[in-house]
């Protein structure tokens, strides 16, 4: 449907996810996937509070684990169709909203990247937002949080 779109988009409306959204992300990305990046939701929220907002350049993105790096709408759609949340929570409409949100400079939750004690980075949430931002020529900002746990593989 859409190819790589390099437009003159000036996006600057990143926001820290709400506490409600952060708790949901923790449940989905940590508990349901049985990860052990954090010992508790409280520890995760503390890491978020201590996190920093950084810009990810395309050359930095290649060093982030678990990134899909999809190059167009159709490839992202195929990916989200494999998610357990499809079609109830993730679908064609929600994907299009991300594209439209960037184009309209709508408020967009920061993707979350975990940095482990050895410097390795892994996407925690926001993989699709990162893919769409790069497709649209936007250098995305992310919330970089720290985890002392080294069991990330």
Can you offer a commentary on this structure?
It is a single chain. This protein is α/β, with parallel strands linked by helices and 153 residues long. 36% of the residues lie in helices and 18% in strands. The protein contains six helices and seven strands, in the order E-H-H-E-H-E-H-H-E-E-E-H-E. The protein has helices at 19-31, 41-49, 58-61, 73-80, 92-103, 127-135, and strands at residues 14-15, 52-55, 64-65, 108-109, 112-116, 121-125, 141-147. The chain has a five-stranded mixed beta sheet with strand order 2-7-5-6-3. Strands 1-4 form a two-stranded parallel sheet. Helix 5 packs across helix 6 (127-135). The longest helix is centred in the N-terminal third of the chain and has 13 residues, at 19-31.
Q: What attributes characterize this protein structure?
A:
153 residues; alpha/beta; 6 helices; 7 strands; 18% strand
């Amino acid at each position: 449907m859409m190819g790589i779109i390099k437009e003159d988009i000036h996006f600057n409306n990143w926001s820290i996810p709400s506490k409600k959204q952060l708790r949901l992300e923790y449940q989905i990305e940590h508990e349901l996937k049985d990860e052990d990046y954090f010992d508790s939701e409280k520890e995760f929220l503390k890491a978020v509070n201590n996190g920093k907002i950084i810009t990810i350049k395309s050359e930095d993105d290649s060093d982030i684990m678990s990134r899909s790096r999809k190059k167009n709408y159709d490839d992202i759609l195929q990916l989200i169709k494999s998610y357990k949340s499809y079609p109830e929570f993730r679908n064609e409409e929600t994907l299009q909203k991300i594209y439209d949100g960037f184009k309209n400079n709508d408020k967009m939750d920061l993707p979350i990247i975990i940095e482990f004690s050895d410097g390795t980075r892994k996407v925690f949430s926001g993989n699709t937002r990162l893919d769409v931002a790069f497709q649209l020529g936007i250098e995305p900002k992310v919330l970089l949080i720290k985890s002392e746990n080294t069991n990330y593989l």
